[in-house]
């Protein structure tokens, strides 16, 4: 017998280790149990049980989070939404869909596509992350440039609060100016306010055929002029950047040969609408002009969808290729126009203070978002390296503050950035966040110790 | 030696093909079109042969309306020296294609005509073989490895049970299989240069090709819908489901 009956639960060591952590590896996984509710009602029952028995709950999605938001390291109960993955309704006129929070985002994308529609929010871990998790982290990814973040697609949420109240937030309405929109408080709340059990998401028409450019920049100062010109001349869906070092790791992990010479310091994968011959021609003209201006040194363009996929691999596979080096990740953002200046300052900072560390840069430059990955040297232990990362961080974040940027652009705060929130948010803001948390979850049941 | 490579414009391999509602063909409006993947492999091999110094010129040819110039330009950007478009509208059957290429062979006198083993749209797998017969020269089809020496080609062929290696006298017809090579990406500067490479347009009439009309497409149907999967709760349920379907 388990106290969670009839709700399914697991307490064996293997399951606890598995469900007790997300993509991060910095904290031990030590939950007391993992539970698998199948309905909003069962989630309400769990909250009631938690209040009665003084349990703490960690809402848990696909556990692809990069900030430890879904980590349970001090005897919490992991509430996995894994068994709540039903698609409730697909509406082709709206168009939109309603699904349980545990539906994998990859599955959502597939179901939309099958119905002749499109869910555009996409990133390397979308196949394993869940709708609820992606809302709780306001996931961004590779097409924010064109389609915005997860927030822009949420039309309704069903939420269970820390008092066991069920909230129906916005009910799928397009227009609803009736007071504070609590839905938007839930988006990006990283499981500290309540558990999202269902969501209504907007869908759109699929874009026309896409082609992919892979381009090599002459130097750092060329990135913005190229972005500006390509954005003006083409309908861009993505403008994703990476450095030369990324190529070595992807080549090592995939065994593929980089299609260009690989001698430029920075590269970008650029995806654009290509419904016919004319846009290819325009892309080529732009390339020619930018090459003549000395900004672009090399490039290729996909001639088939197979090639488009292969070119994307060079950007998408970076995260996984460097994961054996347990990188210390920073997910930073500044105003788009300040990216090159910021990148330059950061690069100098790291090489000055940690000449022994290798840094891999990639990111969503069109959104002003850079992923800085400091790689662990082979002979360093994870513990020592994490400590060194924490030492480096204040310097990095001080720079972020100077540039009026964000210390976490899209990966959230979780456990990883909790101490650093003040670099981006004022005291008054953080205090208000605490009060809002207390209003939703007066007994502090959900995700204790996370975010603030 | 010249190598003549044929390129067919087809619906991209990754596109989910949709049958027109009246069953008269497949939708191509607004659909991504690419070089037939096997033809792209054939061209890659021809370019490698040339880069090894074993051929002087690579010519790409395609039959169809002006839209095929797009695939020919891609071929030029990959490295072909010049291109020939044989303009023709409507459906071009394998025998018509083979007759057309024979005319080009008579005109260009290549040492190798390299085709894809088949086009992924009609999957006919006939053109190379017909051309060899019309030309009365040897053929080495389904090539997964090609070596040239002393006026001969040694070709490893993918056959059902493994590889068969044969030797053919040149000139000959070769057709490529999937594992022959991995085609290169075209560099943007090469695409610029390709714009200045010669592209000649002829017509079936100019070449005096007699159109074959032996095959008539009667109707097209999409494959049957796959039945939905079912998630079972336990091994017992799985076993009884399989039993009830007679699978165990
Ligand atoms: C290789 C890789 C690449 C990535 N790239 C990107 C990227 O480009 N852009 C980006 O934004 N992210 C990226 N991520 C991060 C991650 O995939 C996203 O944050 C994702 O949205 C997390 O979803 P999840 O279901 O895995 O959530 P989890 O990791 O399970 O949880 C994340 C947070 O949400 C909370 N939560 C989960 N489910 C619920 C729920 N139902 N109700 C309330 N709270 C809940 C958890 O408590 C936790 O705080 C990447 C991750 C990996 C591993």
From TrEMBL, chain A:
Residues in domain FAD-binding PCMH-type?
27-206
User: Which residues are in coiled coils?
Assistant: none
As one GO molecular function, the record gives: FAD binding
GO annotation terms (biological process): respiratory electron transport chain
Q: Which cofactor does it need?
A: FAD
| Keyword field | FAD, Flavoprotein, Oxidoreductase
Q: Which domain of life is it from?
A: Bacteria
Q: Name one Pfam family in it.
A: FAD_binding_4
Output the PANTHER family linked to this UniProt entry. D-2-HYDROXYGLUTARATE DEHYDROGENASE, MITOCHONDRIAL
Give the protein family: Belongs to the FAD-binding oxidoreductase/transferase type 4 family.
Q: Supply the name of the protein.
A: FAD-binding oxidoreductase
Protein species of origin: Wenzhouxiangella sediminis
UniProtKB/TrEMBL annotation, chain B:
Family note: Belongs to the ETF beta-subunit/FixA family.
Subunit record text: Heterodimer of an alpha and a beta subunit.
| Names of the cofactor(s) | AMP
Q: Which UniProt keywords apply?
A: Electron transport, Transport
Its name, as the record gives it, is: Electron transfer flavoprotein subunit beta
- InterPro entries, A to Z: ETF_a/b_N, ETF_b, ETF_beta_N, Rossmann-like_a/b/a_fold
Stretches assigned to the Electron transfer flavoprotein alpha/beta-subunit N-terminal domain: 23-211
Q: Tell me which domain of life the UniProt entry assigns to the organism this sequence originates from.
A: Bacteria
Role description: The electron transfer flavoprotein serves as a specific electron acceptor for other dehydrogenases. It transfers the electrons to the main respiratory chain via ETF-ubiquinone oxidoreductase (ETF dehydrogenase).
Q: Which CDD domains match?
A: ETF_beta
MF (Gene Ontology) = electron transfer activity
Q: Name one GO biological process term.
A: carboxylic acid catabolic process
């Amino acid at each position: 017998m388990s106290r969670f009956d009839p709700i399914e639960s697991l307490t064996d060591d293997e399951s606890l280790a598995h469900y007790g952590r997300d993509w991060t590896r910095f904290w031990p996984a030590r939950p007391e149990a993992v539970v698998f509710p199948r309905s909003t009602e069962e989630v309400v029952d769990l909250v009631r049980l938690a209040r009665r028995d003084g349990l703490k709950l960690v809402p848990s999605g696909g556990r692809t989070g990069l900030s430890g938001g879904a980590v349970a390291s001090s005897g919490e109960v992991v509430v996995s939404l894994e068994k709540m993955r039903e698609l409730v309704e697909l509406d082709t006129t709206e168009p939109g869909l309603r699904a349980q929070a545990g539906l994998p985002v990859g599955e959502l994308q597939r179901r939309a596509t099958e119905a002749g529609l499109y869910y555009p929010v996409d990133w390397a871990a979308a196949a394993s992350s869940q709708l609820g998790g992606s809302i709780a982290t306001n996931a961004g990814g590779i097409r924010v440039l064109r389609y915005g973040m997860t927030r822009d697609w949420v039309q309704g949420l069903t939420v269970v609060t820390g008092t066991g109240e069920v909230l129906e937030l916005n009910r799928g309405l397009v227009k609803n100016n009736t007071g504070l929109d609590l839905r938007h408080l839930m988006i990006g709340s990283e499981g500290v306010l309540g558990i999202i059990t269902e969501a209504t998401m907007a869908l759109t028409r699929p874009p026309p055929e896409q082609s992919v450019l892979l381009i090599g920049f002459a130097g750092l100062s060329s990135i913005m002029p190229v972005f500006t010109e390509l954005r003006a001349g083409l309908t861009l869906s993505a403008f994703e950047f990476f450095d030369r070092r990324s190529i070595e790791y992807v080549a090592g992990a995939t065994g593929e040969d980089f299609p260009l010479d690989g001698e430029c310091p920075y590269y970008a994968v650029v995806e654009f609408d290509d419904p016919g011959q004319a846009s290819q021609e325009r892309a080529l003209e732009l390339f020619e002009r930018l090459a003549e201006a000395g900004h672009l040194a090399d490039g290729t363009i996909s001639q088939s969808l197979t090639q488009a996929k292969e070119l994307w691999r060079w950007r998408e596979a970076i995260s996984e290729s460097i994961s054996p080096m347990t990188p210390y990740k920073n997910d930073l953002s500044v105003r788009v126009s300040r990216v090159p200046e910021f990148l330059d300052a950061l690069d100098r900072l790291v090489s000055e203070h940690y000449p022994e560390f290798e840094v891999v840069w990639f990111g969503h430059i069109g959104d002003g978002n850079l992923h800085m990955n400091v790689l662990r040297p082979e002979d360093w232990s994870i513990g020592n390296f994490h400590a060194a990362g924490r030492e480096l961080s204040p310097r990095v974040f001080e720079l972020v503050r100077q540039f009026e940027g964000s210390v976490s652009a899209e990966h959230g705060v979780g456990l990883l950035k909790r101490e650093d929130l003040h670099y981006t948010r004022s005291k008054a803001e953080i205090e208000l966040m605490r009060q809002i948390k207390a209003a939703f979850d007066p007994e502090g049941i959900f995700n204790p110790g996370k975010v603030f | 030696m010249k190598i003549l490579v044929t390129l067919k414009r087809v619906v991209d391999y990754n596109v989910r093909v949709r049958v027109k509602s009246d069953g008269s063909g497949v939708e191509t409006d607004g659909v991504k079109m690419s070089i037939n993947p096997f033809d792209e492999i054939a061209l890659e091999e021809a370019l490698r042969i040339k880069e090894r110094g074993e051929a002087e010129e690579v010519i790409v040819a395609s039959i169809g309306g002006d839209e095929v110039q797009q695939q020919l330009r891609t071929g030029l950007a990959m490295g072909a020296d010049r291109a020939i478009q044989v303009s023709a509208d409507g459906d071009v059957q394998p025998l018509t294609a083979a007759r057309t290429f024979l005319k080009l062979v008579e005109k260009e006198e290549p040492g190798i005509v390299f085709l894809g083993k088949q086009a992924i749209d009609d999957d006919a797998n006939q053109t190379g073989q017909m051309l060899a017969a019309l030309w009365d020269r040897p053929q080495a089809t389904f090539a997964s490895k090609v070596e040239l020496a002393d006026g001969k080609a040694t070709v490893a062929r993918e056959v059902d049970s493994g590889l068969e290696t044969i030797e053919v006298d040149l000139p000959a017809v070769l057709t490529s299989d999937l594992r022959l090579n991995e085609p290169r990406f075209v560099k943007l500067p090469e695409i610029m240069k390709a714009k200045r490479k010669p592209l000649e347009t002829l017509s079936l009439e100019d070449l005096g090709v007699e159109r074959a009309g032996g095959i008539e497409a009667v109707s097209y149907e999409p494959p049957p819908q796959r039945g939905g999967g079912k998630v079972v709760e336990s091994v017992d349920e799985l076993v009884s489901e399989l039993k009830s379907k007679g699978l165990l």
